[in-house]
């Protein structure tokens, strides 16, 4: 049994929570089979993060630390991970299903000529084969899939679904040979949208607003409620298309897929494309003045009322806690 290799994504020297979740799930599965877990970490000036991954169960950490890897380069990153695969010979490679993880997973699978199981929400062993459960048809059904015979199978894990749990061990750090960064383009500038705001893809609580808000100025209500809850601000596509809020906040089929502990939908009808992005939330609260709104079919708690009265009252009550 060759073990599981986890690609650990970092941004500005901070390891992404989605990667720690993937690493923890890899550890749980590997332990059940007595297999090793290794990690691969890429970037510039990231070596000092490597040993710390032992805290999360990585017994070996492959590191490629070179200035050219400071920005994500699909070809170079796939090349570096492929080098780690060649050394670790894993049965599976896990990545968090972040924007970067989703892009890299497909390239890596194509490079290795193996299968890719994207955006999985559960993993288990079937004998010695890894089986994954993943939502299909916009979350209407769950498919159980495996990667066929080609190894390693590449798997991306949906953020916020798997628990990030420490499993301390001592990590051996192995340097990877430098990769050649070539290709038809180079990143000249990275523009970060609305710095400081929580990313809905990784947030534990999300307060989302839709067309029921009537205008961009009323997102202030959503932001106030989000602030008292320590939540991220989400939005329906109708609100984004109207130019009320940036696309980075959009939840749904053509936005981000989220699985927070608590999702509060305000003035959102619950179209199938919106549900595709949030129906795996653990607890869903809907605030809508229409008792027939489809969002109530997936909501655990529903408030039938005018959001312009309900949200300020809710914010006030939570502030008192
Ligand atoms: P509406 O459907 O107009 O709903 C507004 C709701 O607000 C209503 O239920 C109304 O009762 C309620 N309301 C109004 N006033 C108040 C008030 N004062 N108090 C309380 N409630 C009030 N949508 C997404 O969200 N994400 C996606 O990623 C996405 N991708 C798409 C991809 C494709 C290919 C297509 C075709 C569509 C996609 N859509 C997506 C659009 C989707 O079909 C819906 O049009 C959209 O989700 C509707 O947004 P909404 O719920 O904010 O607006």
Automatic annotation (TrEMBL):
<keyword id="KW-0285">Flavoprotein</keyword>
<dbReference type="GO" id="GO:0009055">
    <property type="term" value="F:electron transfer activity"/>
</dbReference>
<dbReference type="Pfam" id="PF00766">
    <property type="entry name" value="ETF_alpha"/>
</dbReference>
<dbReference type="GO" id="GO:0033539">
    <property type="term" value="P:fatty acid beta-oxidation using acyl-CoA dehydrogenase"/>
</dbReference>
<dbReference type="Pfam" id="PF01012">
    <property type="entry name" value="ETF"/>
</dbReference>
<dbReference type="InterPro" id="IPR001308">
    <property type="entry name" value="ETF_a/FixB"/>
</dbReference>
<feature type="domain" description="Electron transfer flavoprotein alpha/beta-subunit N-terminal">
    <location>
        <begin position="4"/>
        <end position="189"/>
    </location>
</feature>
<keyword id="KW-0813">Transport</keyword>
<dbReference type="InterPro" id="IPR033947">
    <property type="entry name" value="ETF_alpha_N"/>
</dbReference>
<protein>
    <recommendedName>
        <fullName>Electron transfer flavoprotein subunit alpha</fullName>
    </recommendedName>
</protein>
<dbReference type="GO" id="GO:0050660">
    <property type="term" value="F:flavin adenine dinucleotide binding"/>
</dbReference>
<dbReference type="InterPro" id="IPR018206">
    <property type="entry name" value="ETF_asu_C_CS"/>
</dbReference>
<dbReference type="InterPro" id="IPR029035">
    <property type="entry name" value="DHS-like_NAD/FAD-binding_dom"/>
</dbReference>
<keyword id="KW-0274">FAD</keyword>
<comment type="function">
    <text>The electron transfer flavoprotein serves as a specific electron acceptor for other dehydrogenases. It transfers the electrons to the main respiratory chain via ETF-ubiquinone oxidoreductase (ETF dehydrogenase).</text>
</comment>
<comment type="similarity">
    <text>Belongs to the ETF alpha-subunit/FixB family.</text>
</comment>
<feature type="binding site">
    <location>
        <begin position="236"/>
        <end position="237"/>
    </location>
    <ligand>
        <name>FAD</name>
    </ligand>
</feature>
<feature type="binding site">
    <location>
        <begin position="250"/>
        <end position="254"/>
    </location>
    <ligand>
        <name>FAD</name>
    </ligand>
</feature>
<keyword id="KW-0249">Electron transport</keyword>
<dbReference type="InterPro" id="IPR014730">
    <property type="entry name" value="ETF_a/b_N"/>
</dbReference>
<dbReference type="InterPro" id="IPR014729">
    <property type="entry name" value="Rossmann-like_a/b/a_fold"/>
</dbReference>
<feature type="binding site">
    <location>
        <begin position="267"/>
        <end position="274"/>
    </location>
    <ligand>
        <name>FAD</name>
    </ligand>
</feature>
<dbReference type="InterPro" id="IPR014731">
    <property type="entry name" value="ETF_asu_C"/>
</dbReference>
<feature type="binding site">
    <location>
        <position position="211"/>
    </location>
    <ligand>
        <name>FAD</name>
    </ligand>
</feature>
<feature type="binding site">
    <location>
        <position position="288"/>
    </location>
    <ligand>
        <name>FAD</name>
    </ligand>
</feature>
């Amino acid at each position: 049994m060759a073990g599981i290799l986890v690609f650990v994504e970092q941004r500005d020297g901070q390891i992404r929570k989605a990667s720690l979740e993937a690493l923890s799930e890899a550890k749980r599965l590997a332990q059940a089979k007595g297999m090793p877990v290794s990690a691969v970490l890429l970037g510039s000036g990231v070596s000092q993060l490597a040993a710390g991954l032992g805290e999360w169960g990585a017994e070996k950490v492959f590191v490629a630390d070179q200035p050219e890897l400071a920005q994500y380069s699909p070809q170079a990153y796939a090349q570096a991970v492929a080098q780690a695969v060649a050394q670790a010979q894993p049965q599976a490679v896990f990545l968090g299903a972040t924007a970067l993880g989703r892009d890299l997973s497909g390239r890596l699978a194509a490079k290795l000529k193996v299968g890719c199981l994207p955006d999985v929400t559960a993993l288990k062993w079937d004998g010695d084969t890894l089986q994954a459960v993943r939502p299909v048809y916009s979350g209407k059904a769950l498919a159980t899939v495996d990667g066929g015979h080609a190894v390693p199978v590449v798997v991306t894990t949906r953020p916020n679904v798997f628990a990030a749990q420490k499993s301390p061990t001592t990590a051996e750090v192995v340097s990877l040979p430098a990769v050649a960064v070539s290709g038809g383009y180079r990143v000249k500038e990275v523009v970060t949208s609305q710095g400081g705001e929580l990313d809905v893809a990784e947030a534990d609580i999300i307060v989302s607003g839709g067309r029921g808000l009537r205008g961009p100025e009323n997102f202030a209500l959503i932001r106030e409620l989000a602030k008292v809850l320590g939540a991220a601000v989400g939005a329906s596509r109708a609100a984004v298309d109207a130019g009320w809020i940036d696309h980075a906040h959009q939840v749904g089929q053509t936005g981000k897929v989220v699985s927070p502990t608590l999702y509060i939908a305000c003035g959102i009808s619950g179209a199938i494309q919106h549900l595709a992005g949030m129906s795996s939330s653990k607890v869903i609260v809907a605030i809508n003045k229409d008792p027939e709104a489809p969002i109530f079919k997936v909501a655990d708690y529903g408030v039938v009322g005018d959001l312009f009265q309900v949200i300020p009252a809710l914010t006030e009550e939570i502030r008192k806690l």
